[in-house]
């Protein structure tokens, strides 16, 4: 007997009869009655079985492998601005982000892009950076320069 399977299912032909089986998480079938399900492409996922579609990874997430049931959050100091991303990109020198971010922000006052790959880290003692300054380096404070200069002559 020929059995028609619905969307989210595939046809499994046994020795004596045709059986409908559910597509597993990470795959979909939008037509029905085909002999297999299709893996979700990179940047997409499906967390449930028996579905006729995959869902896009949201901004701040990515998925670089096909057939997955979830997306991954972008790590700290990276971002993915668009849906269905397959990679996260570095924020760049003087910028930062929390895990799962779609955008990067400039380093806070008192920080500069002096860490690994330009990540924000606190200014060293005797240095400063205000929020209106460039975020790449910290500046030496006038007071610390005055102390170095003048105290060395005493």
End-to-end distance: 103 Å
The gross shape turns out to be rod-shaped
**Low-confidence parts:** 144-152
How many helices? The count is 1
Q: Count all strands and give the number.
A: 16
* β-sheet strand percentage: 15-25%
Helix fraction? under 10%
Largest sheet: 2 strands, antiparallel
Radius of gyration: 27 Å
Output mean pLDDT. Answer: 87
Overall SS class? mainly beta
The ordered string of helix (H) and strand (E) elements is EEEEEEEEEEEEEEEEH
Q: Order of strands across the biggest sheet?
A: 1-2
Task: Give structural notes.
This protein is mainly beta and 154 residues long. Helices cover 6% and strands 25% of the residues. The protein contains one helix and 16 strands. The chain has one helix at 142-151; strands at residues 9-13, 18-22, 27-28, 38-39, 44-45, 55-56, 61-62, 72-73, 78-79, 89-90, 95-96, 105-106, 111-112, 121-122, 127-128, 139-140. The strands form eight sheets. A two-stranded antiparallel sheet has the order 1-2. The protein is rod-shaped.
């Amino acid at each position: 007997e020929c059995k028609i399977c619905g969307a989210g299912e595939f046809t499994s032909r046994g020795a004596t009869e045709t059986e409908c089986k559910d597509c597993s998480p990470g795959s979909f079938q939008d037509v029905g009655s085909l002999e297999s399900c299709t893996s979700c492409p990179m940047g997409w996922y499906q967390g449930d079985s028996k579905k006729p579609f995959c869902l896009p990874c949201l901004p701040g997430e990515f998925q670089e492998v096909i057939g997955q049931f979830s997306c991954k959050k972008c790590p700290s100091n990276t971002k993915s601005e668009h849906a269905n991303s397959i990679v996260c990109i570095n924020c760049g020198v003087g910028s930062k982000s929390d895990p799962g971010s779609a955008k990067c922000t400039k380093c806070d006052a008192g920080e500069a892009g002096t860490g690994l790959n330009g990540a924000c880290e606190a200014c060293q003692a005797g240095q400063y950076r205000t929020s209106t300054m460039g975020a790449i380096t910290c500046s030496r404070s006038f007071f610390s320069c005055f102390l170095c200069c003048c105290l060395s002559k005493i």
